Amino acid sequence: MYSSKMFLPDLKLKEWIKVYWFLEGNGKGKNHFHKIFIPDGCATIFMVFNGTINFSEGNEYIDSRLNKGIYIVPPICSSYKVAMSDDIKVIDIQLKPSIFFKLFKFPVINFSNKLYTFNDLSLKFDKSILEKLYEKKDNNIKLYNELNNFFIDLFNKKNFYADEIIYNISQLYKVGNLDNFFSEQNLSIRQLERKVKNYTGLTPKNISRIARFYSILEQMKFRQFNIEFSELAFEYNFSDQSHFIREFRHFTNDTPNRFVKGSNNFPQFKGLCNLTKIT
């Protein structure tokens, strides 16, 4: 078995970091389990403390096998399979779209379909944080506090601020309204699409699609699966229920009905249901 929990960052980080995702197995490394990861469309910082996690299970989207270390996961827009040892312990720091670009000055559009280390990209990052966290790996509250302190310090050192385009990308990722996004910029649609692709690796349309999908997941969680999918299709402006199912399948590799029955196969959704703030 494994536990999957997501924690909201400190309020000082809420505009830059979406969540900290803690994923942990309670085995001894003798067995493996296969799960489906749902794309979040963000470049994330992925820390492996124990076990192995393999993204190379026949995926066209990403190809890497990871052991203990710090990695960068490029933004992905489709579901993908992973294999994990049952003693896995990882933390995924999910940066909001465009934040990786702003923080490290690296064009996200240049990522390929694989995982990277910071050395691969010649980016400066204090990798000693992994050992500091490793010492606290059995205490999630201490891990959470250490992460907050580290990233608050990092953003302060970078004199980080959100310019207009980053703020508007963040709003698009939150509410998914493409019309508002395009109308609020002083750029042509083509110029804006190029800039967004450079900042996030995604098109504005893909960001909007992901925003709508996660809003649907929130509704499913809130309604405790007591829902009619035809109602969701109408509420979220799909052309019909078939369109809704195709879109849902794109992000989960499953139909809504099978997703509900097998939601334990989707660690992020399990974590989303446990989304909280450590105090």
Protein described:
It is a single chain. The chain is of the alpha+beta class and 279 residues long. It has eleven helices and nine strands. The chain has helices at residues 99-104, 129-134, 140-157, 164-175, 178-183, 189-200, 204-222, 229-235, 241-252, 256-261, 267-273; strands at residues 2-7, 17-25, 32-37, 44-50, 53-54, 65-66, 69-73, 80-85, 89-95. The strands form two sheets. It has a five-stranded antiparallel beta sheet, with helices on one face. Strands 3-8-5-6 form a four-stranded antiparallel beta sheet, with no helix packed on it. It is globular and about 50 Å long. The protein starts with a strand and ends in a 6-residue tail after the last helix. The mean pLDDT is 88.
